[in-house]
Amino acid sequence: MRAVITGGSGFLGSHLCRRLLAEGCDVLCLDSLLTGTEANVTELLTDEHFTFERCDVTEFLSVDGEVDWIFHFASPASPVDYIEHPLETLKVGAIGTWCVLGLARAKGAGVLLASTSEVYGDPKVHPQPESYWGNVNPIGPRSVYDEAKRYAEALTTAYHRTHDIPVRIVRIFNTFGPRMRRRDGRAVPNFISQALSGEPLTVHGDGGQTRSLCYVDDLIEGIWRLLNSGDAAPVNIGNPEEVSVLALAEMIRDLARSDSEIVFQPRPEDDPELRCPDITRARSILGWEPKVSLSEGLERTVDWARPLWG
Ligand code: UDP
């Protein structure tokens, strides 16, 4: 199988490249390097089955040779990144998805779209099943990401219905692990970096808002199973182990054996109050559920970060 991965040198993309290579695929990794970094895939460059090309998929997208699957992972994905790059985020979800689907059609390939739990916005249903349509502010600061991904899901599904191309849509909930960017602004890298360097951990609001965090290896396993399923409808992949942001900060501080204090800062606008995946569908159609607990995953991530960020 020959796979093209957009955003292949980002956090999730770089893990997916490795998994696909391990499964025996040829991998073409495309990345504009807006938020990804080539260092995430440097060690793969010696593999004859791996190629990296710097390329902005919102421009015309052309690939030589046969392609079996395109994994569309290109997008700024942390709130700090997409709020800093609002137009690029909307473009890669809209025009980038058009280019990917057009290339897939020309090549007779399938598309696996990286969607997000952000399609549920600030949810009124908890936990969130795929059948929930969400509660998204269409003009709020997060809308550039939420609406781009909702549009990308609509477009991907329309291509499937109109042109019958194989598609998969994974709704990714908060994921963490090695190769997260230290300064991408998310809670996990912020807290780990702060704890390791003895700085205060910055909890937004009173820290009572919740998230459900999945270790990256579990997410990639879910994506691999989804690829091999025949299902074109969205599937939640995430770990239903829900924690408050304050509890997360305390866990990370303990694992890092840090005596940093915790400080409270204002909540960002439209920050979702609750987030937890209902993974009934993933369990039944993929036989998938997460294997790595939050504390085990955080421990592995702190161990990875300590020599780099400490
Ligand atoms: N958060 C925090 N301190 C930080 C960064 C994030 O308290 O330094 C909070 C943020 O307001 C949100 C939660 O942690 O309530 C998760 O934020 P993140 O950016 O990791 O992901 P999101 O789920 O919002 O996309």
List the defining traits of the structure above.
310 residues, alpha/beta, Rossmann fold, UDP-galactose 4-epimerase, domain 1, 2 domains, seven-stranded parallel sheet, two-stranded parallel ribbon, 9 helices, globular, binds uridine-5'-diphosphate
Number of helices: 9
**CATH class designation of the largest domain:** Alpha Beta
CATH topology term of the largest domain? Rossmann fold
Q: Strands of the biggest beta sheet: in what spatial order? A: 3-2-1-4-5-6-11
Strand content: 15-25%
- The total strand number stands at 13
Uncertain stretches of 5 or more adjacent residues:
none
Proportion of residues in helical segments = 25-40%
Describe this structure in words.
The chain is α/β, with parallel strands linked by helices and 310 residues long. The protein has 2 domains: 2-175 and 214-237, NAD(P)-binding Rossmann-like Domain (Rossmann fold, 3-Layer(aba) Sandwich); 180-211 and 241-275 and 292-309, UDP-galactose 4-epimerase, domain 1 (Alpha-Beta Complex), CATH 3.90.25.10. The protein is 38% helix and 17% strand. It is built from 9 helices and 13 strands. The strands form 4 sheets. A 7-stranded parallel sheet has the order 3-2-1-4-5-6-11, with helices on both faces. A two-stranded parallel sheet has the order 7-10. It has a two-stranded parallel ribbon with strand order 8-13. α3 packs parallel to α4 (143-163) and α5 runs parallel beside α7. The longest helix has 22 residues, at 86-107. The radius of gyration is 19 Å and the shape is globular. The model has no long low-confidence stretch (mean pLDDT 97). Bound molecules: uridine-5'-diphosphate (UDP). Residues 78-79, 174, 185-187, 190, 202-204, 209, 211, 245, 267-268, 271, 275 line the site of uridine-5'-diphosphate (UDP).
